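re: that complex we talked abt at group meeting.

here r the seqs, copy pasted straight from the sheet so there may be weird spacing, ignore it
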Amino acid sequence: MKNRKPLIAGNWKMFKTCLEAVETARQLVKLIPDNTTVDVMIAPPFTSLMPVSDVMKGSCVSLGAQNLFWEPEGAYTGEISSGMLVSAGCKYVIIGHSERRQYFGETDVTVNKKIKAAIKDNLIPVVCVGESEKERESSHTFSVLDKQVAKGLENFVSSDLETLVIAYEPIWAIGTGKTATSKQAQAVHQYLRLLIEKKFGNNLANSVRILYGGSVKPDNIKELMLMPDVDGTLVGGASLNAETFSKIVNFQI
Ligand code: PGA
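got the structure back, here u go
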């Protein structure tokens, strides 16, 4: 029996206009029972944060952002700060998604700065890590994760990271339909928990939630969630449709 409350998070990436986002959020709120035993988060594009926040008020679905910039304010055209996200109703922020690392030059160093900014404003950071197909095939999965965790979480102490969520997202499984098997996911999650234990001690290792992401669907959620170190999922494509996402959230029913 896990003592960590599962988190099922949806990442809408660059999909949905404001109207579409509000409509999907409305449907979602209706489909997820108030007494759900898991935490639920949706991360729409920045433009839809406020209107979606209004729809979700009073429901058990929380709002997250897909990115942030580490400075509190200033002449940084096009960027959004943690304070702005809080003011738009966000509780969570996704940091270091592989698409941001791949297309927008994010590194472990920028990830580190973003985590710092998020926790300063009491946003829950959902920090993404994961290896590419080439790295897995050349048996570098664990060394890639070693570096991402060591650098991404550098200079923090365990009390800084009480709310930390880690999302293990093997790049080869994102949007490809190739899910890691539950055994593959468990092996990596166990390894990540061990890394946290070595660096920050037993308490944080036991409480940190480690999500799996990469082609999660209603038909593979149960199997993944049965794994002792899988504490939830970060869902991309399958979170865009309210009915499909609600089936993932309601996986126990
Ligand atoms: P996917 O995306 O579920 O579409 O594979 C997961 C993610 O990128 O967070």
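couple things i noticed - The beta strands are 7-11, 39-43, 61-65, 92-95, 124-129, 165-168, 209-213, 232-235. The mean pLDDT is 97.
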